[in-house]
Write a structure and sequence with these properties.
Length: 184
Amino acid sequence: MVERINFLVNDRWMLTYRNMAIALGGWVGCCLLIQCVLMIDTAYVRHREQSLQERIRLLTVRQEEQLQLLAASSSREQADTAMQSLASIFSQAPRWSPFVRGLGEARPSALALVRVVGKIDERMMAQQLMLEGYAIGIEGINEFVERLNALAVYRDARLLESRRDAESGRLRFVIELTGERGTP
């Protein structure tokens, strides 16, 4: 009798359709698990991005509100400073009225005064004014200085400083005026 010898060993790791199906199922399961983790991570990143964009929007709105409040308070402070300067001029000596009237006559429309400071120089018997303000262009400042020098009230009007304001783009200037103490 002939005995058959099987040269293929039957062990559990042998490549069979059953073992291949199990291995393929394991690989598909791992791939699906990785895909699920990536989908969850993507959803988390999108949610985080949306929350950060909302936070940026809220901070931008808050910043704009703060800037508006700051601009309003600074313009209010500038107006208060100008009014206090004018009030101090009038309270110190009633002889300032021709000087202030002359400012009104000489000021061009493209020019805004922010601060007016006056003092009396007893040694020279003169009254001095320091004017600070904004102008659209240098032509307006030159015209203002020329008009001030043309008035009989002032002896000397000169531009001390002018520079462009970085925030507003306007020219900020400082002018010094001198007038005789006995000027009517």
